[in-house]
Amino acid sequence: MTAYLAKRLAIGLATLLVASLVVFSVLEILPGDPARIMLGLNASPEALEALRSQMGLDRPVVLRYLDWLAGMATGDFGRSYTYSSPVIELVAERVSVSLPLALMALALSTAIAIPVGIFAAARRGRLSDTIAMGIAQVGVAIPNFWFAMLLVYIFAVGLRLVPAGGFPGWGEDWGGVWQGFKALLLPAVALALPQAAILSRVTRSAMLEVMGEDYIRTARAKGLPRRAVLWRHALRNALIPVLTILGLQFAFLLAGTIIIENVFYLPGLGRLIFQAISQRDLIVVEGVVMLLVASIIVINLLVDICYAIADPRLRTGR
């Protein structure tokens, strides 16, 4: 198990290093001068040179990359030119919105998808299976931003059950926590249902593949109840592809909420990236993207650990 985890950790660190080089290089070759965009078209050459020097843009690219890499290793992601504050503080403020939103969406997606997938697999070829997978196909096809606007129209504008947008903060008491939860409920549902549709189809396919194995037929021949065969034997052995999709979905939910956060006007990481790109605040874009890459690598490492728990053969490389 230790060798398995060490190998996965080494792969993750190598991926993070390559990602840092790619992110830095891509942002460096983007057209446009950040200093000119920040000061405007009428800025004097002296002011432009002073700002470029302050931003470090007059230094060699290799030195800037190494300084940026060393800063990230010590927790210093630089200082935003637009917000005039450290990038890590901006991220800490915004992650209190994006992380709970992603966790809520993942919990909803999992709670819906796995039972639906098992239900459909247990009733393969029946009308209930066809209806469940038909609804899942519709969920896959619907864009989440359109679904988000539909939810706003029904539950916020029509029924007035939840706020239509904005985030009041988490507050200091249970009332404040409840208000924050209500503000994230519709965005979480808008993110979760399309992901639940994908996960339910994967769960059904994995369950059907496992249910054709010899040990499942042996368990049935021994007289085990159908529910026990499904939940105790088939589900665990079908978890590998399900865990893969769960890891990918959480990474998507954490990093891909730009549209949803703009629909609901949420001050999260997605909206921060969108604003930083439009303002050419490259240090913010680089820092946030690298933090998201690091979070995805950590998620993949956790998924690998779950693989080893679900299938002990992976611990020894078999």
Can you describe what's shown?
It is a multi-pass membrane protein. It is found in: Cell membrane. InterPro entries: BPD_transp_1_N, MetI-like, MetI-like_sf. This is ABC transporter permease. The protein has 14 helices and no strands. The mean pLDDT is about 80. The chain is globular. It starts with a helix and ends in an 8-residue tail after the last helix. With about 325 residues, the protein is mainly α. It has a single domain, classed as MetI-like fold (Orthogonal Bundle). α6 (about 125-140) packs across α8, α8 (about 175-210) packs antiparallel against α11 (about 240-255) and α11 runs antiparallel to α14 (about 280-310).
With helices defined by DSSP (H or I, 4 residues minimum), what is the helix count? 14
CATH topology: MetI-like fold
Alpha-carbon distance between the two ends: 12 Å
CATH-assigned homologous superfamily: MetI-like
Radius of gyration: 24 Å
Strand content: under 5%
Transmembrane segments: 101-122, 134-156, 176-199, 238-260, 288-310
Domain ABC transmembrane type-1: 95-303
Family: Belongs to the binding-protein-dependent transport system permease family.
Membrane topology: Multi-pass membrane protein
